[in-house]
Design a protein that fits this description.
12-stranded antiparallel beta barrel, globular, mainly beta, Porin, 298 residues, 9% helix, two-stranded antiparallel ribbon
Amino acid sequence: MNRASWRIRAFAIPICTLLPLACADAHGIVGDRFFPATIATDDPFAADELALPTVSVFRHKDDGAPVDESDADFEWSKSIAPGFAIAFGGGYVDAKPDGGPAATGFDNLEITPLLEIVRDADREFILTAGMSFEIGGSGSRAVADRFTTYTPEILFGKGFGDLPDSMALLKPFAVTGVLGYAIPGSGAAPHSLHWGGAVEYSLLYLQTDVRDEGLGPFMSHLTPVVEFDIDSPTGGALTGTIDPGLIWSGQYSQFGIEAMIPLNAATGRNVGVIAQLHFYLDDLFPHSIGRPLFAGAR
């Protein structure tokens, strides 16, 4: 292994060397695979993390009418026990519909318990169950629903490091996914199937687990990614976006930026952008706020 490759590997695995609890429980890691936190869709890890801020600018359609919308969101996930966490999310919405008054204010608070069901290190696979509660009336009346919405969901992640060596260049690929069903507390609002996920290619995995390509410390921590985020309400039109972009992951934080490409005409005709600064609290504060409240053995 040459000097450049050693430097990259030394920077890539500090989670295992600095956290004495269990490398398998570290943020985003299953076996040899590190999954960066996805931006437009939820990732399947019950971990201590903070996404602040997530900023998006997108001209889209709402009930068929064009709207210029800018959002500034946050999400804080707190682990209660290894493999179990509760996420809290919300944000500020600035929506300007064509020909109508602007609607601005805070969105409803969303609370999501997450429980990791399966972790298979050899297959780089994780399966997680969640239950999201969007608390009706907790946000501004101008932009937030007055009723609570309940969304049971299943999330997963799968790396392809278990492929045969004859397919070595495909090993850095990984996928994540989420499938949820939104049930509004108001009989007048439609139910909605929400599904999404990401296809990602880890240059870090390529460099450290497949072969040394001579990538520098910055390039080796990039993950090209394509996300998709789709809603299908009962009795309504399917809408969503395809979001290609890049995520750079360091030891304590990551930054990602993606384009938001409308899936169809019902979604809109303009390309938006979404960006996120994300902190790994379990790496930043491994002995205090970044560890589970009840840190017993799994």
